[in-house]
Amino acid sequence: MSDTSLVPVPRSGILDIDLYVPGGSKAAPGKKLHKLSSNETPLGPSPKAVEAFQATARKLELYPDGSATELRQAIAETHGLNIDRIICGNGSDELLHLVAECYLSPGDEAIYSEHGFLVYRISILAAGATPVVAKETAYTTDVDAILAAVTPRTRMVFLANPNNPTGTYIPMAEVRRLHAGLPGNVLLVLDAAYAEYVRRNDYESGVELVASAGNVVMTRTFSKIHGLAALRIGWLYGPKAVVDVLERVRGPFNLNAAAISAGAASMRDRAFVEAAAEHNSRWSAWLTAELGKIGLKVTPSVANFLLVHFPETGKTADAADKALLAEGVVVRKVGGYGLPNALRMTVGSEEACRRLVEVLTAFMKGAA
Ligand SMILES: *Cc1c(COP(=O)(O)O)cnc(C)c1O
Fold first, then answer.
1. Which residues are CB-neighbours of 307 under 8 A, at least 6 positions away?
2. Confidence tier at 24 by pLDDT (50, 70, 90)
3. For position 261, which CATH number holds?
4. What angle do CA 281, 332, 359 make, to 5 degrees?
5. Residue 320 is inside which H or E element, if any?
6. Pairing state between β 329-330 and 34-35
7. Which residues, other chains included, contact 122 with Cβ-Cβ below 8 Å and sequence gap of 6+?
8. Does residue 102 form part of some domain?
9. Strand ranges inside the chain, DSSP E
10. Any residues with Cβ below 6 Å from ligand 1, and which?
11. Contact 101, 127 (CB under 8 A)
12. What one-character DSSP code corresponds to residue 158?
């Protein structure tokens, strides 16, 4: 007879994980939905990606290519990279988890910044390691604070550049200074999910650093500018030795056939990506200016979303969120990121941007 006083126990740390809450997606009844809560593109996917996706419907009985060769080839050619140093994932989330699983053990520490992407904390805790938070300065990664947090137990640093939900970035010179200050046995994970949107001369996604260092990886996604979030496609570029380790642990068929085909087609459609970046630059600047005119503080963003700050009392972020929801505009609360007085808003279609400003203008003018 089994001993019922014994129960299965997860690895220590796992019960410290708060459930990740995705952005909302429901409009108020009778209102047109504008979903600005998950940084999805308003332009949809490339028509070439949709065509490739549909073609896969004819051979669903076959396992996909376990090496995602077609997709890795398209990435390697487009970005001028060595295909042997690219590994794909079921979204970049899977790759972030995989890196933590393979390189962190209980007792190890991993650092991320104060308002850094929440998936890092989840990955670190799931690996049984200890999350260490480095303070930010003006909602921006502070390299000195990260370096000051390094101890002999540190094994990993996660850096989203640009960061979500703040929209800020640090120049490549700062990333290099961070790397130079880390011991060689600390893996620097550069998450460049929004790289395609950034139009700054001093920004780089980190490709060159990965190419020249043994302890840096860069992750990218098809969920944002490529408009393929539903297919779950991410990729990682890293040292051959690191990629070999990740290859051992990943699921043998972690990308499905539709993702491989559509991802490859999208990667080769450079004009589509360029048009999406252009739309974003234009409407991000417009939104920032318009929200400023009605008295809202917007953290300068280089990505496809804005972090908008509200007063602590009166016209609060919670009240603004409710007012927007009532009009079908769904944005993201970021209290879970330590930002209870702010909301994160995706730069949507022209119609969505105008609606957002309309509703917030009425909200700011109304009685508190
Ligand atoms: C959206 C996002 C990702 C992408 O995640 P996927 O799993 O590829 O959809 C990764 N990192 C950051 C910071 C993000 O905001």
1. 139, 165, 166, 167, 298, 299, 301, 334, 339, 342, 343, 344
2. confident
3. 3.40.640.10
4. 75
5. helix 317-326
6. parallel
7. 17, 20, 97
8. yes
9. 34-35, 86-89, 109-113, 130-134, 154-160, 187-191, 216-221, 234-237, 297-299, 305-309, 329-330, 332-333, 342-346
10. 39, 91-93, 117, 160, 164, 191, 193, 221, 223-224, 229, 234
11. yes
12. E
User: Token digits for 286?
Assistant: 């417009």
How sure is the predictor about 129, in pLDDT bands with cuts at 50, 70 and 90? very high
Which one-letter amino acid corresponds to residue 98? L
Look up the CATH number of the domain holding residue 38: 3.90.1150.10
pTM above 0.85, yes or no: yes
Closest Cα to atom 11 of ligand 1:
193
Pair of tokens at residue 141 = 């990664």
Note whether 303 and 347 are same-domain residues: yes
What is the per-residue pLDDT across 195-241, written as a single tens digit (0 to 9) for each?
999 999 999 999 999 999 999 999 999 999 999 999 999 999 999 99
Domain end point (choices 269, 291, 319): 269
CB 27 within 8 A of CB 355: no
Element (H, E) at 340: none
Distance 246 CA to ligand 1 centre (A): 19
Domain count of the fold of the chain: 2
User: Which residues, 6 or more positions from 276, have their beta carbon under 8 angstroms from its beta carbon?
Assistant: 41, 43, 196, 225, 227
Of 208, 237, 269, which residue sits at a domain end? 269
For residues 136 and 144, give the distance between their C-alpha atoms in angstroms, rounded to a whole number: 10
Upstream peptide bond of 165 is cis (omega within 30 degrees of 0): yes
Strand order across the 130-134 sheet: 86-89, 234-237, 216-221, 187-191, 154-160, 109-113, 130-134
Please choose from 164, 190, 302 the residue to mutate so as to test ligand 1's pocket, defined by most ligand atoms within 8 A of CB: 164
Max CA separation in the chain (angstroms) = 72
